Amino acid sequence: MPWEREQMAERAAQELEDGTYVNLGIGIPTLVANYIGDKDITLQSENGMLGMGPFPYEGEEDPDLINAGKQTITELPRTAYFDSATSFAMIRGGKIACAILGAMEVAENGDLANWMIPGKLVKGMGGAMDLVAGVQKVVVVMDHQNKKGESKLLKECTLPLTGTGVVNRIITNLGVLDVVEGGLKIVETAPGVTEEQIREATEATIVN
Amino acid sequence: MQKIYDDADAALDGLLRDDMLIAAGGFGLCGIPELLLAAIERSKVGGLTFASNNAGVDDFGIGILLASRQVKKMMSSYVGENAEFMRQFIEGELEVEFNPQGTLAERMRAGGAGIAGFYTKTGVGTQIAEGKETKEFDGETYVLERGIKADLAIVKAWKADETGNLVFRKTARNFNVPAAMCGKTCVVEVEEIVPTGSLDPDQIHLPGVFVHRLIQGEHEKRIEKTTTRKKEEA
Predict the structure, then answer these.
(1) Which residues are registered as beta bridge partners of A45?
(2) According to the model, what pLDDT value does residue B90 have?
(3) What is the pLDDT of residue B82?
(4) In A, which residues are within 8 Å of B139 by CB distance?
(5) Is pLDDT above 90 for A120?
(6) pLDDT at residue A203, as a whole number
(7) How confident is the model at residue B1 (pLDDT cuts 50, 70, 90)?
(8) How far is residue B80 from each of residues A85, B85, B115, B195, measured CA to CA in Å?
(9) What's the pLDDT score for residue B210?
(10) pLDDT for B102 beyond 90
């Protein structure tokens, strides 16, 4: 059985190393926070916060306290606030160990496209270009194929890029793949999914 | 040193003109200068370019100036929450210059700090870097980005003293600091102006030297996405 959204998030949480500062993107990456467990992880929100806490209890929402997805959140004892220029100093400056992001397309050389579909969807890149350029490790969480059954792991991206050669690891509903010399390498399969099935579902070159 | 004005209209008097570049603080609807934006709408000034991370929602923030067709161009990183924005952009009525969020913040900070430009790895190899100078440093490629100097900065803070020293609250600080820095004139709205001497000088987030005009007012502080959790049963 391929992984569901929650299982992909749970698997992605294994990528986080104890004692690090981490940025989680919008969508499935946000769910990763639910599976951190006992690890000492500090979540960065690029609108100006380290030490992001859970959603507030009903009636305790604070309009001055939101995450980068514009959702109301809470602070923790370790929380620090700062302005946007300082926020991206820590991102660009390599102080954030890992970013977990969604994607529309990933290429076998680690190129990432996740910010626009020309003529259709023009929302903007937000902080994604800075994150992939600056953080130490970029993990992408995405469906392996689109709704038409076409691979989203490509030889070359067709959409405007967010960054070139920036992705380290891809977690899809079918398994885990690393970007290595010459293509993608399967490092794990979802339960009941075979390497052969992943190869068939993937346009990008799979290397052994 | 008289920086305090009666209201937003008075504080903007003589500062607004058509086709000017305005830097605005805020992230989403959090920490936006809502009173000054409303006053700009009342002024009917047009052809505006906004350097602002977002474009508000349809009926709040910069969204009200899009609805009234006072905006010619947005310099932003993320604009996904505004249907009227999307319509004007798709139909070619509104010009948009997408900036990576960190690049936009640093462009404002640099412009206000006397830095004409800076090299960043952000956006190298993407359409953001097209037509821009690149340079190798230590074996890696960087792209040159220019500092932004705005004709006017509009900013929201939590508290100010009478000399314009500012304190922000939680994540409402965001772009307000770099936006304030890059304005030739900076107008700030706060929830409370307190007597000079009552703020701890060690806890000032933005010194008053960056602040030229100041108003106090009532803020709606609208929440864009309310997310909550249930209290666990005892």
Answers:
(1) A49
(2) 85
(3) 84
(4) none
(5) no
(6) 98
(7) confident
(8) 22, 9, 31, 40
(9) 98
(10) yes
SS (H, E, C) chain A: CCCCHHHHHHHHHCCCCCCCEEEECCCHHHHHHHHCCCCCCEEEECCCEEEECCCCECCCCCCCCECCCCEECCEEEEEEECCHHHHHHHHHCCCCCEEEECCCEEECCCCEECCEECCCEECCCCCHHHHHHHCCEEEEECCCECCCCCECEECCCCCCCCECCCCCEEECCCEEEEEECCEEEEEEECCCCCHHHHHHCCCCCEEC
Task: Name chain A contacts of B225, Cβ cutoff 8 Å.
Answer: 66, 69-72
- What is the pLDDT at residue A133? 97
Q: Which of A57, A70, A74, A123 is most worth mutating to test chain B (most B CB atoms within 10 A of its CB)?
A: A70
Two structure tokens written together for A44:
């960065």
What phi, psi does A72 have (nearest 5°)? -70, 135
Q: Counting beta carbons within 10 angstroms of the beta carbon of residue B191, is it exposed (0 to 12), middle (13 to 18) or buried (19 or more)? A: middle
Average pLDDT over residues A37-42: 96
Positions of A annotated as catalytic residues are 46
Sorted by sequence, the CB contacts under 8 Å of residue A200 that are 6+ apart come out as none
One-letter amino acid of A79: T
Residue A38 has pLDDT above 70, yes or no: yes
User: Which chain A residues touch B62 with a CB distance below 8 Å?
Assistant: none
Q: Which of A125, A54, A117, A57 is nearest to B231 (CA)?
A: A57
- The sign of the dihedral angle between the CA atoms of B212, B217, B220, B223 is positive
Specify the DSSP class assigned to residue B39: H
pLDDT in tens, A91-108: 999 999 999 999 999 999
The confidence score (pLDDT) of residue B80 equals 77
Contact assignment for B101 to A127 by CB distance below 8 Å: yes
Say yes or no for a CB contact (<8 Å) between A85 and B170.
no
CB contacts < 8 A, A to B, total 183
Say whether pLDDT at A111 is over 80.
Answer: yes
The span from the CA of B63 to the CA of B59, in Å, is 6
pLDDT of residue B164: 98
Q: How far apart are CA A130 and CA A95, in angstroms?
A: 13
Q: What is the pLDDT of residue B3?
A: 98
User: What is d(CA B168, CA B158) in angstroms, rounded to the nearest whole number?
Assistant: 5
Query: In angstroms, rounded to a whole number, what is the distance separating the alpha carbons of residues B82 and A74?
Result: 26
Q: Identify the pLDDT of residue B233.
A: 55
Helices (H), chain B: 8-12, 34-43, 63-67, 83-90, 101-112, 176-182
Cα–Cα dist B10/B189, whole Å? 12
